[in-house]
Amino acid sequence: MNTLLRHKGWTWGFRTTILLYFVVLIVLPILGVYYNSFSLGFGNFAESVGDPIAWKSVLLTLKLAVIATVINVLLGTMIAWVLIRYPFPGKALLNSLVDLPFALPTAVGGLMILLLLGPGSLIGGMAEALGFEIVFHQPAIVIAMVFVTFPFVIRAVQPLLEELDPSEEEAAYTMGATRSRVFWQVILPSMAPGMISGGMLAFSRALAEFGAVVLVAGNIPGRTLVSSVFIFGEVESDNPVGAAAVSIILLTLSFLILWLINMLQMRGRRA
């Protein structure tokens, strides 16, 4: 079997299949978006990108994605720390539940948030009594973004904590370092690459979230209309050029983020 797989014909066939798979499922759709954006000329593209509603949706998406990413970095790092450092009953179950947002359809996640925090729910009713509205406002969008991007930071930080040599901490304690100094100078630098890469992936994913957001956002232009819902609305309004123009902004941001993650990983390997 190994001899057969090493044959030049089989090797060429595998490589060709993988390249075709990559081109058809990834490269061609991306090129199609860029082509449609400029199909009516650069002037039409600039007009679509310069639409105030489009820009407000992009800026709102960026702002809320940053907030969701900061929350995820803080909470995700703490959860990863607890899962690695402390034994407790139900630890295995909690560790498996971390990946639930990956397996769950995002629309179901949005429905869960709607039922939990909506006007007819206990929490939603208490918030309204206090004069604070969650669903169909920006807090609900942040919660939806946090939910769908929840695993990224945890799964990026966990292996770094597992690989951290306990002897480094013990040596620092032996030299008289306090717990806080050990954390900031020994543990945190080891976790930082995972926090940064996981945060970037969470940010990139939050930019594109649609299924969970569309159910809880309210979709008010300039207030709760995010880019993914704006793109959907443009397609429904038979304006694919306008949808593709905003999509290019999100695609470019995602490419930059992935490039930065790749650069960080390469530097980490060299170090």
From TrEMBL:
<feature type="transmembrane region" description="Helical">
    <location>
        <begin position="64"/>
        <end position="84"/>
    </location>
</feature>
<keyword id="KW-0764">Sulfate transport</keyword>
<keyword id="KW-0813">Transport</keyword>
<dbReference type="InterPro" id="IPR005667">
    <property type="entry name" value="Sulph_transpt2"/>
</dbReference>
<protein>
    <recommendedName>
        <fullName>Molybdenum transport system permease</fullName>
    </recommendedName>
</protein>
<dbReference type="InterPro" id="IPR000515">
    <property type="entry name" value="MetI-like"/>
</dbReference>
<feature type="transmembrane region" description="Helical">
    <location>
        <begin position="182"/>
        <end position="203"/>
    </location>
</feature>
<comment type="function">
    <text>Part of the ABC transporter complex CysAWTP (TC 3.A.1.6.1) involved in sulfate/thiosulfate import. Probably responsible for the translocation of the substrate across the membrane.</text>
</comment>
<feature type="transmembrane region" description="Helical">
    <location>
        <begin position="244"/>
        <end position="264"/>
    </location>
</feature>
<dbReference type="Pfam" id="PF00528">
    <property type="entry name" value="BPD_transp_1"/>
</dbReference>
<feature type="transmembrane region" description="Helical">
    <location>
        <begin position="135"/>
        <end position="154"/>
    </location>
</feature>
<feature type="transmembrane region" description="Helical">
    <location>
        <begin position="104"/>
        <end position="123"/>
    </location>
</feature>
<feature type="transmembrane region" description="Helical">
    <location>
        <begin position="210"/>
        <end position="232"/>
    </location>
</feature>
<comment type="function">
    <text>Part of the binding-protein-dependent transport system for molybdenum; probably responsible for the translocation of the substrate across the membrane.</text>
</comment>
<comment type="subunit">
    <text>The complex is composed of two ATP-binding proteins (CysA), two transmembrane proteins (CysT and CysW) and a solute-binding protein (CysP).</text>
</comment>
<keyword id="KW-0812">Transmembrane</keyword>
<keyword id="KW-1133">Transmembrane helix</keyword>
<feature type="domain" description="ABC transmembrane type-1">
    <location>
        <begin position="58"/>
        <end position="261"/>
    </location>
</feature>
<dbReference type="InterPro" id="IPR011865">
    <property type="entry name" value="CysT_permease"/>
</dbReference>
<dbReference type="InterPro" id="IPR011867">
    <property type="entry name" value="ModB_ABC"/>
</dbReference>
<keyword id="KW-0472">Membrane</keyword>
<dbReference type="InterPro" id="IPR035906">
    <property type="entry name" value="MetI-like_sf"/>
</dbReference>
<keyword id="KW-1003">Cell membrane</keyword>
<keyword id="KW-0500">Molybdenum</keyword>
<feature type="transmembrane region" description="Helical">
    <location>
        <begin position="12"/>
        <end position="35"/>
    </location>
</feature>
<comment type="similarity">
    <text>Belongs to the binding-protein-dependent transport system permease family. CysTW subfamily.</text>
</comment>
